[in-house]
Specification:
Largest sheet: 5 strands, mixed
Structural class: alpha+beta
Helix content: 40-55%
Strand content: 5-15%
Length: about 210
């Protein structure tokens, strides 16, 4: 049975909270019980498959098993992870194809998912505005490509337009597939891309950060 894409978020976040609690030596909860509960939630989500949250669950499981040196569980996870990665790769091939009409919407994530993105944006003085969007395609049901579109702030030192997007991306810890778009990158600054760029910036509710001064 395939889950609705957004149903995976609360299940994933609850599991991560339990694992975080289990790793906290000051926790008043039963750390063993919390860890087992968190792992069970992630295992169920990963086994369900057919969604980006299942991929995120499998990756978080791998980290937890490695930290706990649970090599038997890692071996069992390998086949699940392999199948999910194959689904993920097929979905991404469709999502990264920007030819023709591009369907975009504004994601509705919890503050916990958004916090790593906003923290990075607030630390970067060259960020003027940032827009957060979700791209879906019919060929990749259950998967999305999340776009973080960054417009620079004028009048401040400017990072390298070729590589700044990568520096931002490396700082953001997000469980889902994120594509950072620096509008000063030559690909996006091209006149041919301007209709799409203007479309991105006009989508209501897409602007998640504004630190620019004009």
């Amino acid at each position: 049975m395939r889950q609705h894409p957004q149903e995976g978020e609360p299940r994933y976040l609850m599991a991560c909270l339990e694992l975080d609690e289990a790793s906290d030596p000051t926790s008043l909860q039963s750390r063993t019980a919390m860890r087992e509960s968190g792992l069970a939630r992630l295992e169920a989500l990963a086994q369900q498959g057919h969604s980006e949250w299942a991929v995120a669950a499998a990756r978080r499981l791998e980290e937890a098993y490695e930290a706990g040196e649970d090599f038997a569980a890692l071996a069992d996870l390998r086949s699940v992870r392999k199948a999910l990665e194959a689904q993920d790769q097929q979905a991404l091939e469709a999502l990264y194809e920007f030819g023709g009409r591009v369907e975009l919407s504004v994601p509705a994530f919890s503050a916990r998912v958004m916090r790593p993105i906003l923290d990075v944006l607030r630390r970067e003085p060259a960020v003027g505005r940032a827009f957060f969007l979700k791209r879906t395609v019919s060929q990749a049901a259950g998967w999305s490509l999340y776009l973080l579109v960054v417009e620079r702030k004028p009048g401040v030192p400017q990072p390298d337009p070729q590589h700044w997007w990568q520096a931002l991306d490396e700082q953001i810890d997000m469980p889902l597939r994120l594509m950072v778009v620096d509008l000063e990158h030559p690909h996006w600054a091209s006149p041919a891309r301007q209709p799409l760029v203007e479309h991105l910036k006009r989508i209501e509710g897409a602007c998640i950060y504004s630190g620019r001064s004009l």
